[in-house]
Amino acid sequence: MFEVHTGSRPGRPRLLLSLCAAALLISLGLAWAQVRLRRTLGPETRIAGTPLIVRAPRGWRADPKTPGLFYQAVRVEGRFGPKLDIKRQIRFRYRLWRGMQPVEALLRRRNSGDHVATADSVERARIGVFDGLQVRRVREFELFGEYHREETLFRLAMSPRGDEIGIEYFPLRELTQGDLALFEEVCRSVRVEGVAFDDRGSQAAARAGLEFEIADDWRVFSAGIADVPGVYIQNSRRGAPIWGLSVFRTWLSPNRDALQLLADFAEENWSVSREQARIATTRVGQAAIAWITNPDPPADRAAISAARLVATDDTHAAIIFTLSDQRRFAAADQAAADLAATLRIRDGGFVEDIKAAREAGEILVRELSRGGVQRVWGQDTQTRYFARMIDPVLLIEDRRRPASVGYEGELTYTFAGVVEPVRHISWTVGPRAVGFSWELREQLGGGRALHVLDRRDAAGAGVVRTWFEPRGRPSVSYPVGPRFVAPPIEELVELSVSRRGGGWWEIEVLTRLSGGTHARLMRPLAGGAVLLIDDYDPRGAVVVFDESGKRYEQLAEVGRIERLDAPKAKALLRPRP
Q: Which helix H or strand E contains 34, and what residues bound it?
């Protein structure tokens, strides 16, 4: 029709179409860029009191009274002048459990209050690299005679070691596609400080010197502490973790066998005495396998319910922990048994020369004894406070002072807001770090108490343990070797290793609940830190020292311990109203 009315014809119709298409693409690109800009996230922020690192939407404000809450504020004209009107909110929640929990069960607990989710709204989702579930919550209410309906998004995920991460998003009214996209970006950006979970399956296992078949419904993560040789395995149903396994490299020192390691683990973690421990053994090819199960697992949560030790020789060994609740224990433990029968432990990924590590440990202890404790501690009286950042927060008060001979001190462990301590230790140590006493009082739960005294004279004989509680256990004496380090000065040895150039050191240390001693490997890390791995519980810990040689942080699979100043510590000690 254009040609009929004007009598002209376009000379290059394809160019016209190309220009129109280019204009359309530019318009769409600008629109996408504007939407993307509005959804851009702000800088990383650590949620106070947690290791959670998050990125809230750009321009959103953190609520100073509620850690983890961010909101979008717009300045509007009110009746009495300008005011801030809160438009949208997002809230992050964190809790560290002693092991992975089934996400479905946690979601049922968390799905309470005014906003209620229906079963058909549950869908698979992730926070960071962690699997979880997401629900839409709905609150219906009447206000001034009008019906209102509010929606929120709630997502819950669980790390393999037990980090529970919850995020809830509050839109203006009903959820839009823009809200969903923004929430997805926020969830994708979350990470946990101090842990380096890597989910590249067989590669994570190979770095630890482990080799095994990975089932279709498994996700394999490296250990949370990057330098610890081990992996986590999550088994999922409909995308949500329901039980897990963890595999960590260990070793067998002289006079220590698989039965002793498992017995120590059972007493330290389950309060099962050596006399009560029931350990089974078998062989599969060249591997010796020993295992023990918790006779009284907790009924209301998942926990380590069984442990298996697989060893082909002293340095090719690993412990497999079964993490499950009672309902899923049979399936999880069968998977652990199958894994133990097929696990291959390769060279590399762990200490290469255990003999050299033992010689280095012996030299280190001899140097400490020759130099004396006074060279490091002097005449200073010291009070320090630490807090283990797990729910509930555990406050640690550490006191040390010079004594008539050597030094003396106390360690008090108290849950935040509680008056009575859960654990109290009083100690002495001689000037040459040989003779010591270590008296422990601890509430074990269920009305049970522990009260023991370990002591060694300055001549360097064995250690004598006296049992006050539980009654009926006779006093025992156990020998210690040339790598033994008295409990009060373990920190001095850790500090010394943190300043070395490399390698491994093996020492012998006291076992807190079961009595006797166990082996500990140490390796210096960058930044004034030292890696600690105990033979019976090789999940590991990293202790960090500042430039002055003072301990100020400890990272472990079961939580972070941070140094506090006195005012903050006393605030935590204040009884709850």
A: helix 13-39
* Listed residue (195, 193, 190, 223) closest to 209, CA to CA: 223
DSSP code, position 40: -
Q: DSSP letters along 217-269, please?
A: TEEEEE-SSTTS-EEEEEEEETTEEEEEEEEEEE---TT--HHHHHHHHHHHH
Number of neighbouring beta carbons within 10 Å of residue 381? 11
**330-353 tens-digit pLDDT:** 999 999 999 999 999 999 889 989
Average pLDDT of span 296-309: 90
Query: pTM, whole model, 2 decimals?
Result: 0.85
Higher pLDDT, 105 or 19: 105
Written as one letter, the residue type at 175 is: L
Residue type, 408: E
CA distance 131 to 125: 6
What is the DSSP code string of 359-404? HHHHHHHHHHHHH-SHHHHTT--EEEEEEE-SSSPEEEEEEEEE-S
Report residue 112 as tokens.
């309470």
Distance CA 320, CA 309 (A): 6
| 526 pLDDT above the threshold of 50 | yes
CA–CA dist 277, 289 (Å, integer): 16
Residues with Cβ < 8 Å from 154, sequence gap 6 or more?
Answer: 110, 111, 115, 117, 134, 135, 136, 137, 166, 167, 168, 169
- In the chain, the N- to C-terminal Cα span, in Å, equals 85
Instruction: Give the dihedral of Cα atoms 343, 344, 349, 353; nearest 10 deg.
Output: 120
Strand-pairing partners, residue 231, are: 222, 247
How far is residue 152's CA from residue 239's CA, in Å, rounded to a whole number? 21
Residue 205: closest CA among 216, 225, 220? 220
